[in-house]
Give the backbone structure.
Amino acid sequence: MYIKEFEIRWNDIDANRHLANKAYIEFAAHTRMSFLGENGFNHKTFGKYNLGPVVFYEHIYYFKEVFAGKPLRVSLELVGLSEDGMFFSFEHNYYDYKGRNVARCEMMGAWIDLGSRKLIGLPEEMLSILDTIERPKNFKILTKEDTRKFAKIPVDLT
């Protein structure tokens, strides 16, 4: 399990004087990009293959309020990956300074070719890196159907 610690800043607090919703998303994104960067998924590699990550969804479940003044730790586990590496799923848990689980974020995303703007599988060089990452008990091989499990479709204005 990968863990990153954060100081809660003034601009991370909302009008209720607890951690704002946006801060949870930002901490999760920063944790993911730190994890990926430390594992060879950096700007150089993204540039080499002209690809980048896209987020399909992030669901956050709140268990306890978080206030300023104490650090917050955010974990990351790779809980899903398609065979070609196109789709990925991470779970983040948020822990207060005493190690209590205060929130959880489940996210799913994919890789996009920045030229064609289409989803693509990972090059073997990058996929082989993810194959070395420890898998938690709830790890799942993802399929395209998993990306549609919430069955949300757009409804345009007429």
Q: What stands out?
A: The chain has three helices and seven strands.
